[in-house]
Design a protein that fits this description.
alpha+beta; Glutamine Phosphoribosylpyrophosphate, subunit 1, domain 1; 6-stranded antiparallel sheet; 24% helix
Length: 291
């Protein structure tokens, strides 16, 4: 039996509020696309893959120390490739081509990351993104200040040294299939433990069509391309504007909030999330969750 999160483990973790920083430091770059699972022509897939690759390379200026991608299928399979090289080099590697060769009609999400390390050596590849924490695959831009304290108090597993890992280990404690209608509330409670700045994209492979997006004092924009039934994300608004034209005007996500999108609901929802929540300071009173 693994560690358990409960009142004894998490009460007292919140000793100060989420950091209210008034400046931005260019850190990492996030890219992603959530895809309605449907048949697409070979030409549509080529265009989508071209945008995925261009988005990753365009974000290279936000982090040149490492890069990676994750391809997530509707059945919960995930193919990842990451290396301690700039994105422009990664996309020329055979491992990148193999990962993208898995993209097809069953693909629901593709995540990408360009890294400027703040904690955890890029030469230890487990620190590079996308990160895998239990059932959760995610990418993060920002800095988490209290990761060591959360890991010490909760006994959550830790695979690498990178601070980002704590975000996704916390998310993994919430099973989206066993929440009795409290999924949003439980996610909000976990996120409330974090101190720092963050923009994240993550998928729980137990519900692979769902994409959790967190935005707190870091850039992240989105665009829904109706023709492809695809929701694109980028840390760089300029890329989305260049790729999709003047329709990308004000599609920046509101800061200080979490958003949950469902690939199955993209045709009717577009950029509208299934649910959202405020990222707020809370006194954690969490139900025990077995990991």
């Amino acid at each position: 039996m693994g560690p358990r999160i409960g009142n004894n483990g998490l009460s007292g973790l919140r000793t100060k509020p989420i950091l209210r920083l008034t400046f931005h430091v260019i850190m990492c770059g996030l890219t992603g696309v959530l895809l309605y699972p449907t048949q697409r022509s070979a030409e549509e897939w080529r265009e989508i893959v071209a945008v995925v690759t261009a988005n990753l390379v365009y974000n290279e200026e936000r982090g040149r120390e490492a890069a990676g991608v994750a391809v997530i299928q509707a059945g919960g399979h995930c193919y990842t490739f990451k290396q301690p090289v700039p994105a422009s080099e990664l996309v020329e590697m055979e491992g990148y081509r193999r990962a993208l060769s898995a993209i097809g009609d069953d693909t629901v999400c593709i995540l990408g990351h360009t890294r400027m390390p703040t904690k955890g050596s890029r030469w230890h590849n487990v620190n590079n993104h996308p990160l895998v924490a239990g059932h959760v695959v995610g990418v993060h831009n920002g800095v988490i200040a209290n990761d060591d304290r959360i890991f010490a108090r909760t006994g959550l597993p830790r695979v690498g040294e990178v601070d980002s890992e704590v975000i996704f280990q916390l998310q993994d404690t919430v099973n989206p299939l066993q929440c009795n209608g409290r999924y949003a509330a439980l996610l909000q409670e976990r996120v409330s433990l974090l101190e720092g700045t963050f923009a994240t994209l993550s998928v729980d492979l137990r519900r692979p069509a769902g994409l959790l997006v967190l935005k707190h004092l870091q850039p992240l924009c989105l665009h829904y391309e109706q023709e492809w039934q695809a929701l694109f994300f980028s840390s760089r608004y300029v890329f989305l504007r260049q790729a999709f034209g003047r329709s990308v005007i004000t599609e920046a996500l509101e800061s200080g909030r979490g958003f949950y999108f469902d690939a199955q609901q993209l045709p009717q929802n577009g950029t509208r999330p299934v649910f959202s929540f405020d990222i707020v300071e809370m006194a954690p009173r969490l139900t025990e969750v077995a990991i």
